Amino acid sequence: MQCVRAWRSLNYLCRVAHHRAWKRTQSHTTAARLDLSGIYPPIATPFTAKEDVDYQKLEENLQKYAKIPFKGLVVQGSNGEYPYLTVEERVEVVRTVKQSLPAGRLLIAGSGCESTRATIQLTQKMAAAGADAVLVVTPCFYKGKMDSRALIHHFTKLADSSPVPVVLYSVPANTGLELPLDAVVELSQHPNILGVKDSGGDITRIGLIVHKTKAQDFQVLAGSAGFLMAAYCVGAIGGVCALANVLGQELCELERLCVSGRWEEARVLQQRLIEPNAAVTRKLGVPALKQAMEWFGFHGGSCRSPLQPLTEAESQQLRRDFSSNGWL
Amino acid sequence: MQCVRAWRSLNYLCRVAHHRAWKRTQSHTTAARLDLSGIYPPIATPFTAKEDVDYQKLEENLQKYAKIPFKGLVVQGSNGEYPYLTVEERVEVVRTVKQSLPAGRLLIAGSGCESTRATIQLTQKMAAAGADAVLVVTPCFYKGKMDSRALIHHFTKLADSSPVPVVLYSVPANTGLELPLDAVVELSQHPNILGVKDSGGDITRIGLIVHKTKAQDFQVLAGSAGFLMAAYCVGAIGGVCALANVLGQELCELERLCVSGRWEEARVLQQRLIEPNAAVTRKLGVPALKQAMEWFGFHGGSCRSPLQPLTEAESQQLRRDFSSNGWL
Amino acid sequence: MQCVRAWRSLNYLCRVAHHRAWKRTQSHTTAARLDLSGIYPPIATPFTAKEDVDYQKLEENLQKYAKIPFKGLVVQGSNGEYPYLTVEERVEVVRTVKQSLPAGRLLIAGSGCESTRATIQLTQKMAAAGADAVLVVTPCFYKGKMDSRALIHHFTKLADSSPVPVVLYSVPANTGLELPLDAVVELSQHPNILGVKDSGGDITRIGLIVHKTKAQDFQVLAGSAGFLMAAYCVGAIGGVCALANVLGQELCELERLCVSGRWEEARVLQQRLIEPNAAVTRKLGVPALKQAMEWFGFHGGSCRSPLQPLTEAESQQLRRDFSSNGWL
Amino acid sequence: MQCVRAWRSLNYLCRVAHHRAWKRTQSHTTAARLDLSGIYPPIATPFTAKEDVDYQKLEENLQKYAKIPFKGLVVQGSNGEYPYLTVEERVEVVRTVKQSLPAGRLLIAGSGCESTRATIQLTQKMAAAGADAVLVVTPCFYKGKMDSRALIHHFTKLADSSPVPVVLYSVPANTGLELPLDAVVELSQHPNILGVKDSGGDITRIGLIVHKTKAQDFQVLAGSAGFLMAAYCVGAIGGVCALANVLGQELCELERLCVSGRWEEARVLQQRLIEPNAAVTRKLGVPALKQAMEWFGFHGGSCRSPLQPLTEAESQQLRRDFSSNGWL
Fold first, then answer.
1. Which of A44, A321, B137, D108 is the most buried (most CB within 10 A)?
2. According to the annotation, is A97 in a ligand binding site?
3. Which chains are adjacent to chain B, needing at least 3 Cβ pairs under 8 Å?
4. Is A233 in Cβ contact with D230 (below 8 Å)?
């Protein structure tokens, strides 16, 4: 029996290898796909005391980020408070970032809205403002109806019309729903859908996405620093990590260790990043991210209401999560 | 012991009665509060084949609703697909409804946005367009940070500046969060906050809200027809029910039975409404509501994408849920 | 159209009435069903300092309960810490209660286990020890596999072999699953299944259970005091309420008010019971129930480990939840 | 600033290294800890047609498992249907396994019960029956009260009295609760608590457990094959995997690849195991595990009721999940 099973495994592996070779040929005949591999901070949006976008502070942050070996920037991921910006502000922030961006760096703009038509319109504006690709969150208000059928329809319509490639975005902590695996697999076959940012952190699912899309040259990005190393381990090619707004150099170092197979060193570094990451995301959210940015020399400042500043106790907790891991 | 307990109960009841009498005096000296009691359909928004708002069909629906003894209309509750409308469309739909509304009926407009500033701005536009009150959903994208502190801040800022009274709106099936009880109780003391629409359906919580706000003349509206009778039973004063778009006359009849204490008849009618209600809300959502509207002589039509039309199987299920209860 | 709809409603009501009359005739020809209507405390199990069952204190509690107009007692509902008792203890406690029970009162014994075979065996022992009926919780460890098919099979096998009638028991706060509605409806047709205790508190579901089983003379019991009045309102016929261990007289009074249609008075009393009830169930659990029992003249005492005594802060919270409603 | 931060990191790493060296010295002076590293099948319990334990088929399975390079066997993990066995059966199965176990292999017996006293008693019986260690699931019925305080008390009492070392067991899919991280960290300091089996699959949490217990020589086992490679990557030392009942050789191969740093090969193998693993756990459960065992030459057979056999459609789904990955 063992023998039969070995033969089946071999047979399976040959089929897969053959399919991948064929795919590679195919894609060579079409345009080269954008290579997303690397680390991206989903940049925060600084505000003035009156809660207006502070473009000057934004530019000062951008100058600092330019010195860190990021692959690019994500503008208006969840940490950019995009649901609190008007459409005009969303586009203007992207335009501002584009002007400061060093050559060779990617600008990925969040353009997700609840309706398909609004998402298509904003995507076009983002492309016109200089986005190299768009990151599109799942619509979520009617979550009971956002099944694979609806989501495949939404993203396909968008990808059909988008002037720039699309990256899917699943962030259940904010949306209350996960882009279903079968929808990801189906959508991975669209020539204008490049990959997915998965912020759910279910490493089994991430491994399975990599596995089931391997014939499509589909790129998986970890959506949080807490599971970045594990995601690389199972086949992800980069990360969009809130914590990169604060410890960007360190996350690029973690990337380098993973990519070069130095897993022992990677593990030590990864472990020290879990608590700081949890603090600025799941535990204390965007206000904590912005507070930590201040401590590390960036402009964070306060959030738009209804997001509230940290309480004193929360601020101390945040400090402990950095200091107990040797970062402060 | 039994005796001591009876005395304590009596003592408690006297204190409460005294407090309520005092409160009533107080509120008489200020402006009379808007009386919300009654049934409201949260009206659907009809679209053309190209997904534009179909104002003509909207008006035809409004003429039919005018013949049903509703207390008023809710415009841009969840069933109005408001997250799929632009700000301009949201205001224009309210303006259109206002023009057709019979005298004496209330227009309650949904004006909730994610940020406090956008909510304040839209509220002012809604008031200018003719809304008698606004219904304001909890912001929800950063759900981990939408605790009582943030939500009390949000609704207080809004109520402070709103030209019309505010009704709180908790709809966990869409937002993934419930407006916490302590926040409701605190906010009930704001003179410009009239009441709450609770769509969660937790009857224990609804009873407790009534109990803990009884000194404030705070008005509780059931957010769905499935628990309308039970809500009246524990002290609610009306309902905003998706099903009222379809079976409006029957829901007004249920109201009449509850208000006049004819509970046996009410129960028979209530029970026949549970399955149709579940079908057009939780189970099959807005597309089913709009399909059922067509069957009952209203304009429903299709939804904006990404909401998809019902499948054939879903449509049959919907029909069964109405016909097995004697409505079709 | 209105006319056609009225005719359909009438037609529906006639069919239902006819069916019920026929059913009543049928059941008259078989044995009379046990009438469960009324209030039951799911009694707590007192322990000695060494965590052995304290049969003497149990009997002292029973003597006090005998003076309260309960319909009967539930022995080994969730509040009886039954998962912490051995099979022998479970049976011995039932035997003890039976000996003290006044004539005419029902003894309903919890006999649910994870496996069908263990449940059948324990049910037979409970019947032999004097139980008039058994209350059988849904198995729950393999919750992913406890679908309607499995649960219908489980309860049918049990009811087929049980010497006493069976009451279904759905308590999602403890089991993490709800007995599905379609399973309840299917099981309601079994001649040896009398009713259901529903502790989930979803009043829409409770109303629907009453509606969809009305042809079966199926009896629905509210599983908690927080929604007792609302449950009566939609058609329940009694309640098994943890709080009846503490405020039994008051819950029997609430029953009387509901049954006699004195809804206004009922509402006042119901509202004062919600917070004390939440405190001894959802919020602070069995240790709080036992603490409150001590305050009201019963033997509560401590729980078996791993249930821990209340902290000082929890104890104060518990006291506030009773005193702020006039009970202490 | 970069410089200061580098210094802080260095300082942190030195402190940690020093602490670990000191700890190692300490543990050398006390008894050597049991080394758990490796792969374990949580063996299934075969039943006869009458649902009695089939000891003969059990032994035939054991003989086959003896040829696979497992570190040992887990007897009465969740896949052993232990909640459906009597205490006597639980002990007898362990005794039977002990008799067939090759020298040098570990027997880890599940001895968790709801109450602390029952868990202590069963642990003693398991040790007497030959268990080298016990695997103890979190009590879960009163989940609202199973906070860190209760669970730390439970496991500490147990570990204080247990004649064999204790492995903690967190399996939220069955219990509806996760052993809190702070409780794991606190309990890791108990000299008789060796490690934890974590079946939740949250890789960020697993990495953090490794990180925060590294001073304690605490051993983390992955509780499922779906995230085995990722768990090794972040510092786990083995796995207890349902799928090892079926594809034991392959899981031992995956272990070998991970331990020897051959991550590329590991990834290919890991990816092919995700769907078969999901099928026999989360998706289709123990009945599917037993069905797959039959296909691969082991005795699976049917489950105790209420677990039902697979439907024909489920069986085909199961087959597809194996065959599409090249295993059938």
1. D108
2. no
3. A, C
4. yes
Which of B51, B117, B285 is the closest to A142 by Cβ? B285
Query: Which of B82, B197, B232, B290 is the catalytic position?
Result: B197
Q: What's the gap in Å between the CA of D14 and the closest CA on chain C? A: 40
Tens-digit pLDDT profile for residues D98-134: 999 999 999 999 999 999 999 999 999 999 999 999 9
Segment D43-61 shows an average pLDDT of 98
Q: How far out from the chain centre does Cα D56 lie?
A: 25
pLDDT score of D28: 40
Give the gap in angstroms from C-alpha C43 to the nearest C-alpha of chain B: 20
Q: Is B142 a catalytic residue?
A: no
User: What's the CA gap between A326 and C196, in Å, rounded?
Assistant: 57
Whether B169 is catalytic? yes
The answer to whether A231 and A203 are in contact (CB under 8 A) is yes
Sheet with D72-75, side-by-side order of all strands:
D38-40, D238-240, D219-222, D193-198, D166-170, D133-137, D106-110, D72-75, D42-43
pLDDT tens-digit series, residues B196-254: 999 999 999 999 999 999 999 899 999 999 999 999 999 999 999 999 999 999 999 99
For B138-288, list the strands marked E by DSSP: 166-170, 193-198, 219-222, 238-240
Burial class (CB in 10 A: 0-12, 13-18, 19+), B264: exposed
Please indicate whether, in this complex, the C-beta atoms of C118 and D86 are within 8 angstroms of each other.
yes
Q: How confident is the model at residue B8, as a pLDDT? A: 77
D268 has a pLDDT exceeding 70: yes
Chains C and D touch (3+ CB pairs under 8 A): yes
Residues 6+ apart with CB under 8 A from A7: none
Ranges of chain A with pLDDT below 70: 1-3, 10, 14-31
- Name the residue with tokens 């990169």: A244
Fold observed for domain B36-259? TIM Barrel (3.20.20)
B120 to chain A: nearest residue by CA? A305
Chain B interface residues (partner C, CB cutoff 8 A) = 1-2, 5, 8-9, 11-13, 201-204, 207-208, 210-211, 224, 226-227, 229-230, 233-235, 249, 261, 263, 267-268, 270-272, 274-275, 278, 296-297, 325-328
Using CA atoms, how far residue D62 sits from B85, D73, D74, D102, in Å, is 64, 9, 12, 10
Beta bridge partners of B43: B75
Question: Cβ–Cβ of B267/C325 closer than 8 Å?
Answer: no
Put simply, the answer to whether A263 touches D2 (Cβ < 8 Å) is no
Inter-chain CB pairs, B–C, below 8 Å: 114
The mean pLDDT value of chain B amounts to 94
**CB pairs under 8 A, 24+ apart, for D87-92?**
D87/D122, D87/D125, D89/D53, D90/D122, D90/D126, D91/D122, D91/D125, D91/D126, D91/D129, D92/D53, D92/D55
Q: Where are the beta strands (DSSP E) in B13-163?
A: 38-40, 42-43, 72-75, 106-110, 133-137
Alpha carbons A87 and A82: distance in angstroms, whole number: 9
pLDDT of B6-45, one tens digit each? 767 767 766 666 655 544 444 443 457 899 999 999 999 9
CB-nearest to C263 from B203, B233, B296 is B233
B313 pLDDT above the threshold of 70: yes
Kindly determine whether residue B154 and residue A117, on different chains, have CB atoms separated by under 8 Å: no
Q: Which residues of chain C have pLDDT under 50?
A: 22-30
Determine whether the interchain pair A305/B149 forms a contact, defined as Cβ–Cβ distance below 8 Å: no
- Other Cβ atoms less than 10 A from the Cβ of D37: the count is 14
The ranges assigned to domains in chain B are 36-259
Q: How many CB atoms lie within 10 A of CB B153?
A: 16
Band (B2; pLDDT cuts 50, 70, 90): low
Q: Which residues of A are catalytic?
A: 169, 197
User: Under an 8 A CB cutoff, do A211 and D1 touch?
Assistant: no
